[in-house]
Fold:
Amino acid sequence: MRAVKVVVTGATGNAGTSVVRALAADPAVTEVIGLARRAPRRYEVPGVRWVAGNVDPGGTDLVGLFARDGADADGVAVVHLAWRFQPTHDPAQTWRTNVLGSIRVFEACARARVDVLVHASSVGAYSPGPADGSRVDETWPTHGWPGAAYTREKAYLERYLDGFEAAHQGMRVVRMRPAFLFKETSASEQRRIFAGPLLPWKLIRPGLVPVLPAVGGLRFQALHTDDAAEAYRAAVLRPVRGPFNLAAEPVLDTASLARLLHARTLPLPAGSARAALAAAWRMHLVPAAPGLLDAVLRLPLLYADRARQELDWTPARTATEAMGAFLEGLQSGSGLDTPPLAGAGAGMFGGRPG
Structure:
C-alpha cells in the first residue's frame, strides 16, 4: 500500500501518543485518526484527527470509523492500543474493555474489510519463561500467568486472534509483544496506574533515595516508547504478519535502577515483597494487585531478532536510557496535554479531573 489511512485506538496514552506521531510523520500515511475516550482539547499533532469514543460493547461505531471512505487511501490499517489497567479490584470491568472491547475491534475490522490489523499484545501474554532464564522467541507459548488480570486478558486475546486470523486470511494481522514501555512524558500516568498517590515522586531522584529493595528474581526488559512506535509504523507499512517481540538491551534489575539513582540495594525475598504489596492493595493504598508482581517475576526474557530482520528495526535508545527518561519524568512530574498523560500535580485537565 502506497497511501494508507490508519486508525489508532487508545491514541492518547503512553504508546498511542508516540504511535500517532510516528505514523503522521510518514509520507505513505495519508490520514491518522486517533480514537480515545476523551479527545485532547489542546494537544495537537500535525496530520492527526482526534475522535472521542470507546471500544466497549455498545460504544463507538467502529465499522464506520474503519471504513475506506475516500479515494486518497489505497488501504486501511487499524492499530489497536486501547487498554484499561484499572480498577484492579473489579476485573470484570477491565475484562469488558480489554477483552470484549478488543474482540469488538477485531470483528469491526473484518466487517469494514480493513487491510491491516496491528494488535498491541505484550510480553505479559507469554507463559512463564524457561527455568534457566534463557531468552525466548515468538514461538514461546502465550498462555500468560493465570493469577493476574493483565496477563490473563492478553493471553485470551492471543487465543482469539488464532481463530480470527484463520477466518480472515485476506487481512494482515500483526501482534506486537513489547517489553515494558517507558518515556519521560508517561511517568505521571504510570505512577498513577501502578503506584498510586502515596509514592513520593518528587523524592525519586539521584542522591535522595538511599536504599532500594532488591526483590529476589526480579529481571525485566524495557524499551523507549518512541522506539516501539517505530516498530508499529513499520508493521503497518511492510508486508509482514504474525508476532514480533520488541525489547532493547540491556536486561534490567534492581541494581540497574540503583545505579541510576545512586542508591544502595537491600535484598528482599519475593515472598516478603508480595505480602507487603498484597496488604497495601487490600487496603486500597496501591492500585497494583499482587498477582501482577507474581507475573512479572515469571516473565521470559525476549529475543527481538525477528523485528530487527523483517521490520528493519533497531532501538535508538538502550533500556537504561528508557528507564532514565522515565525517572526524569517522575522527578519532574512530566506529562502531555492529554487526559491519560496529564502531568503530576496538574490536578485538572480541560476543566475536569485528569
Observations:
- The longest helix spans residues 91-111.
- The longest strand covers residues 29-36.
